[in-house]
Each structure stands twice: as structure tokens, then as C-alpha cells.
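Sequence in, structure out. Go.
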Amino acid sequence: MNGKEKEIKQKIVNIDRTKDKKIFDTKMMDSWSDEDWAEWVGTEKDYGINVVFEDDEEIYLQLSSLADDEVTSEFILGFIVKNRANHNLKIQWTRLLVDHIEFDSSGFEDCLLKSNQAAVDIELRVNHQNFKGQIVVGVQVIDAVSLKLMKDIVLDYKLF
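Output:
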């Protein structure tokens, strides 16, 4: 490796939204206090997905939505991706695990991002229902011309 090249290490982002959360016994809802109900319902900040797992001078990656499609029995993960670099990038999905079930990521289409391209919405769909709350997503950011690996990122996200 010459002095200009940098070693690419895998970046692991762990986000656990279950930490410090109270566990409720829903069988006892009839006896909950007003405070229990308020905590169960939550506030506006407890809703929606806005998980930024890479935000630097070259790339912006955000997990933006999670949804069950009851008609197709698919689980849909939505992402927002921006290329901030002055060269084309390729996003390659290397891993997807939902609720301890590993899905074959080779079937996901790579995403080519033109240099300085504004936000692009990407959906990954897998045959899975009744999301229980854990996702692991592996993403590689690759220079689209040289095919050099620029970033190797893993998002480990626990919602419930």
C-alpha cells in the first residue's frame, strides 16, 4: 500500500432504541395509570424512522422507512442516498438480516450514483412479515470507475 491509499475498515453502527425502555405487560392494560398510558403511546419523537448511518463529504446514507406490505407479504426497507463526491459511486448491498433471518443480498440491484447526485430513494423488499424489531444491513460504497472499495458499513438496528 503506498502512502496515498488508506486501509478500508468496516464501520459498524449499532443503534438500539430498546435501551432504557420500560417493558409493558399488555395483559394488564386495564390497570395502567395515566403515566403508563402516556409512556406506552410515546411522543412525536418516538415515531418514524430517521437513522443516518453515514454522513460525510462523499456519501449520505439514511434508513428512512420500514413497512409491511400485507398484500404482497413483503417487508420493505426504504433508504435515502446522496452522492456528495465529485465522481460516480456504486452502492452494493452485502447483507440483510431481518429478525434473525438472513436474506440473499445478491438479488438486490446495485445503485449507481452520478457525481454530486441529489437524494435517491431506494427500496429493498424481502418476503417477510410481522417485523419484530431487528435489522442488520451491510453496504459497500465503491468508486464506480476504478471499482475500488471506499467504505464498508454495517448498520445493526434494534427498534423494539
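Check: Strands lie at 10-16, 51-55, 59-69, 74-83, 89-98, 101-103, 111-113, 120-127, 134-143, 149-158. DSSP finds one helix and ten strands in the chain.
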